[in-house]
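Sorry, can you check?
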Amino acid sequence: LISLCHLFLCLGDCQLHTSCGIQKCTTDFVSFTSHLNAALEDFDLEFCKALRAYSACTYRNSKVCRGNLVYHSAVLGIGDLMAQRNCTKDGPTSSTNAEMTHDPCNYNGHTEAREHQGGEKTPAPTYLFCGLFGDPHLRTFKDHFQTCKVEGAWPLIDNNYLSVQVTNVPVVPGSSATATNKITIIFKSYQDCTEQKVYQAVTDDLPAAFVDGTTSGGDGNTRSLHIVEKVSGKYIEMHARHIGTTVYVRQLGHYLTLAIQMPRELVMAYEESQDLQLCVNGCPSSERIDDSGHLPLPVMSKLLPQGSAAHAHSVYTLETATTKCHEKMLVKDIYFYSCVFDLLTTGDANFTAAAHSALQDVEALHPRKEHWHIFPRSRGGAAGRDSKFFVRLGLMCLILVVFL
């Protein structure tokens, strides 16, 4: 759409009379919409406001632009877009006054407000991603991928704006692997945008409301914080406009998964006493199942004594688990290998859906497409994307280490 608008601008330069103001209308529309993120919940609201402002501008120029093809193309395009987005003709519009458009409860507008006040360009905010799924696999804000034990309650995030704590329980007897059965999220009070809001989910109870029964924070007009239920009892999203943060919580099988996108400057806004955050610093070394992404080959006889029940937990073999995971994930990245590991460890096919959904959440929330996929590496540093030997050795080592 923006490319089309730039085409309009070019056409305007070439053939519009100076009395026709369609070029200014189009320039304002591009300005209103260029910063919007289609993944955010308030996108349609802000886009409709910009379309109404665009429409009002074309109406004001209807006489001087009469007979101009670019003008009439813009009018038709506006009508089509308003129909597609279900925009009402009446309603609020975007304003050309930067002071009026600044919304203190919209993080995405903070940069523009600072530029307007200080007159200097500031870098666009950098967003980071963290995710937790399976038994359990952690992707940190630094894009480090770890498999950990972390049994009990652990903080994923704990900064000046947001706290997220997860509780993990053992998955199968005799294994150190755990999975998440409880998530507590605290959105801390922020200026006039929202009071403190607490959300809690446990296995088989994934509510679409905060613990106080409300579904939003802030007044009815701003709704700086709100919950959207995507699948009843299985999948909810939380959108916090005031801190530019989006959180996805899902239940798959008997366990929960979490994915979050948050601005870097807010992620790093924490005190020294808050340094135990799995999303920021990863799992403590004593809680790691993997070893910095590498798995040492232990002595077989020490791991599998006679009568060991290590294989009793899973009905999958390496081949059948690989086939099952490949049905959902075609790329053999770390999510694929995590899926195979979880199937061999638990025998629970729901972990396949958990790994697949975790990758989908990455694609929805991670800002850099080139970093969506993480591939395991050998000790020499070469990527082992398709090495059957490495895959088999790595998976077997993972299984053996879990049953230590």
Observations:
- Residues 352 and 400 are 20 Å apart (CA to CA).
- The first strand starts at residue 127 and ends at 133.
- The two ends are 57 Å apart (CA to CA).
- Residues 43-60 form the longest helix (18 residues).
